[in-house]
Known about the structure:
168 residues, alpha+beta
Amino acid sequence: MRWIWIGAGALAILVVVVLVVGWLMPVRHRASRQATFRAAPAAVWELITDVEAFPGWRGDVKAVERLPDRDGRPVWVEEGSNGRITYAVERAETPRLLVVRIADVNLPFGGTWIYEISPVSGGSTLTITEDGEIYNPIFRVMSRFVFGYESTITAYLAAAEKRLAGGP
Length: 168
């Protein structure tokens, strides 16, 4: 019985340490990655703005539901591995800049994704910058030390590369 109490105490201390570390970490973070594709900027633009096609090439998206536009800009809900998340386009400059915000204030995270497309010899470079906010201190610790801030961007770029190369 003594070992059970020691284990429970150690677990409680671990939870407190994680909470304290999470509270000490900033709510906001910035992560950025880029990839170069053998595709014209217009093709990359089409890929990242055709939200209805996301389930066909992004493994983390099972379904997309378009919502009415806000101020003439697209709004949609992605359903996938992270649950249901509403997104809204804040700014679009075809075919070079797209800024998308998480438009659901009830989530434990938020922020924007900035997609910048630059022409290069033989294709284009897509740079994705996440200006994220993580409100839950436990999620802050997990995102920073377990998953990594760049993991979602890295997976997105890998899926985009596969799709632009002709894959499913």
